[in-house]
Amino acid sequence: xxxxxxxxxxxxxxxxxxxxxxxxxxxxxxxxxxxxxxxxxxxxxxxxxxxxxxxxxxxxxxxxxxxxxxxxxxxxxxxxxxxxxxxxxxxxxxxxxxxxxxxxxxxxxxxxxxxxxxxxxxxxxxxxxxxxxxxxxxxxxxxxxxxxxxxxxxxxxxxxxxxxxxxxxxxxxxxxxxxxxxxxxxxxxxxxxxxxxxxxxxxxxxxxxxxxxxxxxxxxxxxxxxxxxxxxxxxxxxxxxxxxxxxxxxxxxxxxxxxxxxxxxxxxxxxxxxxxxxx
Length: 279
Known about the structure:
By secondary structure, the protein is α+β, with helices and mostly antiparallel strands. The protein has one domain (4-265): Sandwich (Jelly Rolls), CATH 2.60.120. The protein is built from 8 helices and 14 strands. It has helices spanning 4-7, 21-36, 47-60, 109-114, 117-127, 190-198, 252-259, 264-268; strands at residues 38-41, 65-71, 92-99, 133-134, 142-147, 153-156, 162-169, 173-174, 177-180, 205-207, 214-217, 223-226, 229-230, 235-243. Strands 1, 2, 3, 4, 5, 7, 11 and 14 form an 8-stranded antiparallel beta sheet that branches. The protein has a 4-stranded antiparallel beta sheet with strand order 6-12-9-10, covered by helices on one side. The protein is globular. It starts with a helix and ends in an 11-residue tail after the last helix.
């Protein structure tokens, strides 16, 4: 049976032991997050763990919801009252697929990592968030993004304040992670978002993650995308979501777009957010 102790390289990253090396890791991660809202822990998952996660992803890949549509960075509808150059009116082809959270039972490796108390405590300490809770969305708390050749994810902001991802398997080519750090801190900053969409921004950075890498990312504030993929090998990325308010779930519109369905809880809790950003 896969356990957090066999899945996570606790020799390299002793997240379960207070003080010492853990504090050194926290210092580095906090500096990276403070600088550009993104931090990477290379080889966080053991080779055995990578294989277990890959096997799990292969086993439920047919459960992925695949969608092909056009979206703006906020996943909102077009507003003809705005100028054509406004980011809210800039729509791009989105072709991607997500394996919803209800395909990962408690005994599965990805959920074992997510529900490991030392893991959530470590992530909270990295982010220095006083309010920190597991995402209550039964379709989205722990998911896998499964992308095939030609797929990609256009520029967008995340629904959650912070997202944790685990690189499981890369495509043969492509799939680089591109992001514009912290351009939506304090306000929507439509002018800078427009520059990113136009390809004229000097704020965009490129990151290539390898299987086993853990990424902590403040995607609610940093515009980001995944470049199109090439080759026959699918790209698998596990996504672990935490939020700043208990009981938070995705909007019905967002869940329908990403997972092809909603549950009663999405409609019951619609509009319960901790901020007023568009998405």
